[in-house]
Write a structure and sequence with these properties.
single chain; about 500 residues; alpha+beta; Rossmann fold; 2 domains; six-stranded antiparallel sheet; 17 strands; about 25% strand; VWA domain-containing protein; Uncharacterised_YfbK_N; signal; YfbK_C
Length: about 500
């Protein structure tokens, strides 16, 4: 049985590196993210958000991210760089199931939402399909007035089969420091890489770098047809020493640059617990290294492992390295994350992708973007192609949730949703837009599709865990009940278990 689970896990890891999916969140639900301005306790009376009534800040973003509700008459435009990370949810779940509270700073609501597969409609060609819907708040939500609504904006790229994807040139940078001896770390990595070698195409190529006190090239870029040579390199991965992540990244990117293939997808895959203690340990300095390499069309995938995990460090590296980060805790988690949510992320569909929602102040009184605190952009940066956005692979989905208040009697036009991105090959910019009407927000919460309710429960769980003022608007027992009524699939069962574990720690 153990061997079967392990085989499933390593197959998952193999798929992750090959094609790209993403979790979507087809919901009309919401979560909350930013820290509230002083005096805000949540929704005020219908049509008059309490924060605005008390003079809350209405700037598009404060230095630390979204702050309070934004008056649509003052700032109708909300702009952010897209993000497909899901590591925050995976790490929080592992921590809670171990009977510990996760640190509030590691909780990012958008990653909780994006961790669930919601099956958005895919576009027929390249680029994105835009979805927009919403719902009223559930009756259990405190201070939910008649004007309070939840808006869900979804962006989806087209999937790609293994037969049609470009060749891959992958450089694996593997942490073999002493902390990787923990079960579910290096052992899982080795099995995953071994299965990957068996599944890659002969025309793909792989290099293997290991690092502890220093970095070592165990195998230069090698065509996958030489499977035995690659297996031998994987078998030589042994735990020892400290964690010199700087040395590992530098050697990894040097290896990728030297073997760069213009016709292939070139990617560095960092497998680590993200806790450097030798060499440069400052994320900002290492981010510069990643940025320089990203400019040469080498993207980064971060795979986080372990109960002691440098979440913020790995997130910063991936965001600046034209990539993203996922978290794996055990064989079952590997299967869920890499097979169901983010399989195969070698290819890219879009570079520097940004989203923008322009609200109609005739119908919308105020709004709040939930999450994306460190991805908020100014309105003018949307069409500035020198400003970094997010990288999105085939089959990936991005979800943004807004909490908003409608004006009394609101009808007609609600907002315009836009997405802008660059083609990974030509760097040509494209833009797509879609209008949204007030009627998409009329659905009662209890009648909303199951994925909507799951997304709401996951998002507000994040608000509780991050000690947000908006977390006070819900009770964990209500969130658990909402999730439990939404289905009995594995993802939903795990969410119910996670909320139940949180309830015992946040009573």
């Amino acid at each position: 049985m153990v061997s079967q689970l392990r085989m499933a896990a390593v197959a998952a890891l193999a798929l992750t590196v090959l094609a790209a999916c993403g979790s979507s969140a087809e919901d009309r639900s919401s979560s909350d993210s930013g820290k509230a301005a002083p005096g805000i306790t949540g929704y005020g009376p219908p049509g008059t958000p309490e924060g605005l009534a008390k003079g809350a800040a209405t700037g598009e973003a404060a230095a630390g991210g979204a702050e309070g509700e934004v008056a649509a008459a003052d700032r109708p435009v909300s702009t952010f760089a897209v993000d497909v990370d899901t590591a925050s949810y995976g790490f929080a779940r592992r921590t809670l199931m171990a009977g510990r509270r996760p640190q509030a700073g590691t909780i990012r609501p958008e990653e909780f939402v994006n961790a669930f597969d919601q099956q958005y409609r895919e576009p027929e060609g390249n680029g994105f399909a835009i979805s927009a819907d919403g719902a009223r708040l559930p009756n259990s939500h405190r201070n939910a007035g008649d004007g309070a609504r939840l808006l869900r904006v979804g962006l989806q790229t087209r999937g790609e089969s293994d037969a049609t994807r470009p060749d891959a040139a992958l450089t694996f940078v593997v942490d073999v420091s002493g902390s990787m001896a923990e079960p579910g770390k290096l052992d899982l990595v080795q099995h995953g890489l071994s299965m990957l070698v068996d599944q890659l195409r002969p025309t793909d190529s792989v290099a293997v770098v290991a690092y502890s006190d220093r970095a070592e090239l165990l195998r230069p870029m090698t065509p996958v047809r030489d499977r035995q040579g690659l297996r031998d390199a994987i078998g030589r991965l042994k735990v020892s020493g400290s964690t010199n992540l700087e040395a590992g990244l530098r050697l990894g990117y040097d290896t990728a640059r030297e073997a760069f293939r213009a016709s292939a997808t070139n990617r560095v895959v960092l497998l680590s617990d993200g806790l450097p203690n030798v060499g440069t340990t400052d994320a900002t300095a290492l981010v510069r290294t990643v940025q320089e390499a990203a400019a040469k069309q080498i993207s980064l995938l971060g795979v986080g492992v372990g109960s002691d995990y440098g979440d913020k460090f790995m997130e910063q590296l991936a965001d600046k390295g034209d990539g993203y980060v996922v978290y794996v805790s055990d064989e079952a988690e590997t299967d869920r994350v890499f097979v169901q949510q983010l399989p195969a992320t070698v290819a890219l569909r879009a570079l520097d992708a940004k989203a923008q929602v322009e609200f109609d102040s005739k119908t919308v009184l105020s709004y709040r973007l939930i999450g994306y605190d460190d991805r908020v952009l100014s309105a003018s940066e949307f069409r500035n192609d020198r400003v970094d956005g997010g990288e999105v692979g085939p089959g990936h989905a991005v979800t943004a949730l807004y909490a908003l208040h409608l004006r009394p009697g609101a009808q007609g036009h609600l907002a315009d949703v836009r997405v802008r991105w660059q083609d990974p090959k030509t760097r040509e910019a494209s833009e797509l837009s879609r209008p949204v009407t007030v009627t998409v927000l009329d659905e009662d919460f209890d009648g909303a599709p199951a994925p909507v309710r799951v997304c709401y429960a996951a998002a507000y769980l994040a608000e509780v865990l991050r000690a947000s003022r908006y977390g006070d608007e819900v009770r964990l027992s209500d969130l658990e009940a909402i999730a439990a009524r939404a289905g009995d699939g594995r993802q939903v069962r795990e969410l119910v278990e996670t909320i139940n574990a949180a309830a015992k720690l946040y009573a």
